[in-house]
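hey so u asked for the seq, here:
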Amino acid sequence: MRIRLGNGIEIEGKRRILMDPASTEEDSITLISHAHSDHVPRDVRNPRGFVFSSRATMEILSSFYGADKVNAMEFNSQYDFNGIKVTPLVAGHILGSTMYLIEHDGPRILYTGDINVGGGLTVEGPADLQEADILIIEATYGSPDYIFPDQDRVRMDLVKWAADSVKDGFIPMISAYTIGKSQEIIYLLNKLTNLPVVVSRGVARASRAYLNYFDLRYELDHDEPYVYVSSRWKDAERSVKAVATGWAIKRDFGDAKGFCLSSHSDFNGLLRAVMKVDPEMVITVYGQSKRFAEELRKMGIKAEALSSSFIKL
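ran it, structure tokens below
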């Protein structure tokens, strides 16, 4: 069996498995880790081959992308593809986000997709990390420069900012990813305030699948006062702006307030994941992949960043 970064993450053995590819292929198995657009094949509405995801991801793909040809997999159930056994595991990144444990004649492989070892408010739980021989791990924040503040404290600060803004006569507008972060913020505001939450049509569409799992209350329009949640701000008099993202740890958003709220693991979280899996080899992908592999090698851990060249497993 061998692996490379090509059309997504390509694993070749008894079957050709594509994880988070740009497009699907005939005679292949496609595994989608979660519903963020950079992990979803562009032809997901009319795929070739066989396409699988978790049930919640399948529901988001249907409601948000109009994709109805994805097959649902249940967490912790094992699926056999010509002798290659695949087990989906909770990843903790957004609702439905999935890690895949792959077992065959050779080493056990765990692909994380995007993970959060701490989980979040609108996910199934924290990343359900299992021991494996080969760990393929995301490295979005794979640099020591990215160590987040306590996430519960950030959540409380965000709620306080929104409530204080309304008290002062402003409309608080929070920019967050359409799928995942927006729903967590809606849930947070619903639980801790009685403020109406207004969302964009995109956030409303993404939230439909979440309603099968969480009680979210939001509207497309409401008289003031309210809190507005969307990937983009809208024009409104007497508004104040905020951005909720892990990148707020380093970036300046001008007149908008940054809240370092992330659905990813930070550098320390990624290290915890590696220690929990205890692999013989770590393969890093996405984001700070080269830097994270370098940091792991400094710790005496065999690691390399995935590239277009095949690695034999």
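The CA atoms of residues 287 and 309 lie 18 Å apart. The chain has two domains: 2-146+265-312, 151-259.
lmk if thats what u needed
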